[in-house]
Amino acid sequence: MIYKSIRYVSLTIFALLIIIPSAIVVLGSSKTDAEVYNKPLALPESWNLNNFRFLFEVSNVGRSFMNSVIVTGFSVTITLVLASMCAFAISRMITVTGKILFSLFAVGLAIPGQVNLVPIFILFNDLQLTNKLSGIVLINVVTTLPISVFILTAFFRELPKEMYEASEVDGATPFRVYRSIALPLSRPAMGATAIFLFVITWNELLFPLLLITDNDKRTLPLTLLSFRGEFFSNYSMIFTAVLVASIPMVAMYLLMQRSFISGLTAGAVKG
Fold it and tell me: Which of 12, 77, 176, 227 lies at a CB distance of 3.0 to 4.6 Å from 172, suitable for a disulfide?
């Protein structure tokens, strides 16, 4: 009884810590600054879209939003394709070679990108990939590939080996096995990994800050960073910008919620 009460109180406090700031942001996007200061949790006196209109008409948020959509879409897609291929190959290699390859990707998780900022900038500058969305896509793929391979390899190893053996007896090539058997069965893990990559890539600030100086090539987090400086005291505009930046992540989770939950619970029950 005491344990249930403690758990209930803890979950309630945790929920309030999430709900209250979220409510302030959502309500503040339709308020004036005076309303935000005086009544942060109250409903707006009049619901309007003036903040959103100003955000997209005056600032560069609309262009940056599309840049983030392009960068995130290509980064997540390319990473999932490469990671699934690598994970499938590693899971099928039960020799020392497979273990070495998996260890190399695991080592990549231990090396933070911050320690390589100088050589990354020099390399991308020499390759003329600065101020280009393709350069941001490339660095996103490189930095998120190790964790993607790590997640998907664990899932591929749980798939029954009998299916692989039966397909090989029928004459299927390794790529046909990967395309027709491994990928359809790995949809839950792919969905969970896609959401994970989407959140990381969409919120990425470090590499755009390092590689992008052109205003037209800025991603949304980079624009919001400068936007905060321009409207530092205008909290209603800041709340509106934060809300706009959060909508794609919420939509992504709602669209792939079933795959995300299935991916988290995959392999939890053995039978």
Answer: 176
- For residues 83 and 153, the answer to whether their CB atoms sit within 8 Å is no
Residues 6+ apart with CB under 8 A from 137: 71, 74, 75, 78
The Cβ of residue 271 has, within 10 Å, a number of other Cβ atoms equal to 2
Which domains, and CATH codes, for the chain?
1-48 (no CATH), 60-235+244-265 (1.10.3720.10)
Locate tokens 């993607």: which residue? Answer: 148
Amino acid identity for residue 118 in this structure: V
Longest dimension (CA), the chain: 73
Tell me what the pLDDT averaged over the chain comes to: 83
| Token code pair at residue 4 | 């249930």
Place of tokens 């809300």: 243
Q: Which two tokens stand for residue 28?
A: 């503040």
> Residue 88: in which H helix or E strand, if any?
helix 61-92
Q: Which helix (H) or strand (E) holds 33?
A: helix 33-38
Q: What would the pLDDT profile of 190-215 be if each residue is shown by its tens digit?
A: 888 898 899 999 999 889 999 998 88
Global pTM reads 0.82
